[in-house]
Amino acid sequence: MKSIEHLNRVFEHPELMVMGHAQSAADHNLGLGWLYYAQVRVTRPQTVVCIGSWRGFVPIVLGRALADNADGGHLHFIDPSMVDDFWADPQRTQAWFAGFGVDHVTHHLMTTQAFVQSDAYRALGPVGLLFVDGMHTAEQARYDFEAFEALLADDASVFFHDSVRRLRSPIYGKDKVYEHSVVDYIHALRQDPRYQLMDYAHGSGVTLLRRAPPPPPTEVTLTKSAMAGGAATPAPPPAPAPA
Ligand SMILES: C[S@@+](CC[C@H](N)C(=O)[O-])C[C@H]1O[C@@H](n2cnc3c(N)ncnc32)[C@H](O)[C@@H]1O
Fold first, then answer.
1. Who's near 45: CB < 8 A, 6+ residues apart?
2. Which residues of 105-124 are buried (b: 16+ CB within 10 A; e: fewer)?
3. Rounded Cα–Cα distance for residues 46 and 66 (Å)
4. CATH classification of 3-216, choosing from 3.40.50.150, 3.40.50.1980, 2.60.40.10, 3.40.50.1370?
5. For a substitution probing ligand 1, which of 35, 54, 108, 169 has the most ligand atoms within 8 Å of its CB?
6. What is the mean pLDDT of the chain?
7. pTM: predicted TM-score of the whole model, two decimal places
8. Domain residue spans in the chain?
């Protein structure tokens, strides 16, 4: 089956067309999912970690991109199935992902707090892409990011979903309504000069974080040999100002 046919299967499931990724079945539009897919195809991470998902839209898109990279990348999906029992049965979870051609995924049926105590966490190695979409409080978003911060590869990408506005959510029960406050943590991260952030205020919004680039290199002059592939020579110092 062609890759696009696997991906198109998400449009057959109304439960994958919700939760604020600006996706729409009518015109086969992945919405923000195009960003998630493209980021994996462009940066080719070997290890992707996705925290939290309603019915799997994000891990399916990330998993499809890894499959299409075809270079051995693996997805770790962390979710304790706190909303209902959707992720509770390992065989059912594996079959659900396999239905979209996503086989290189390990589901960890636990919170991030439990995952950081596990052997799987200690064995992870550099993480090329982290997707934070668990409990949408500023405190939990901070916990999720800091749990993986030291493991992030130099060119890692981090997405935070539900990151651009405040919202009251009854998803854990009418008596457990809580406020999404990831936006407050994003504001704090924006003050950190080590990182650059970009918001996409579509659907429920997503923010992409990458390391800030180093200062630009000193000016170089392109010589003919440099243009042909040789080393560029530094520009000569400016002439002294006339006395
Ligand atoms: C309902 S989803 C949010 C919806 C999401 N925006 C989407 O697109 O699917 C949030 C998920 O985070 C999980 N979750 C809650 N607390 C968590 C934690 N501490 N660690 C990992 N996952 C958590 C829940 O089990 C739930 O499935």
1. 66, 73, 127, 128, 129, 153, 156, 157
2. bebbbbbbeebbeeeebeeb
3. 8
4. 3.40.50.150
5. 54
6. 93
7. 0.89
8. 3-216
